[in-house]
Automatic annotation (TrEMBL):
Highest taxon above the source species: Eukaryota
Residue ranges of domain HTH psq-type in the record: 18-50
One Pfam family, short name: HTH_psq
Name of the protein: Uncharacterized protein LOC118766046
This protein's encoding gene: LOC118766046
MF terms in GO: DNA binding
Amino acid sequence: MVRHYKRKSERATLPQDVIQQAIQQVRARAISLRQASRTFGIPLKSLSRYCTKAAEANNNDHSLSGYKKPRQVLADEFENQLEAYVLAATEIYYGLAPKDVRKLASQMAKADGCNIPPTWHETEMAGEDWFSGYLQRHKNLSTRSPQATSLARATSFKQDKCCYVFQPTC
């Protein structure tokens, strides 16, 4: 899997609102398909395909252009749940190592019945490429190895004691 994908074409980079305006004008028969193609700067065949998709979708809010994510293992909502779980574990001084997060992702995917790669079955954890992509999608997560926090340190870290140490005049 490619970790740092570089786009090779400018395909499907038009804003959705421009495409919607062109489709509305063509469907309202205000202008022809060719004229809308020239006016809005959309290739004729692409505009024709967008109009066909819009007619089939009956004006639902589905994306008419762009690429799908056919190999996305976990849905966005599950990735967000995993992120929230990792952050919550960090806040209670129980940080998760990268391998733990990968194992947890694999368990979530199996429980949800997602279509997962065969290597996830063999190793019982998500792949390194998936994990690096996951960290790129969720910037507020850290990959550092967790350090053990003693109970005394966790319970004694209070504002009044910190104030006493750092500002003796409190």
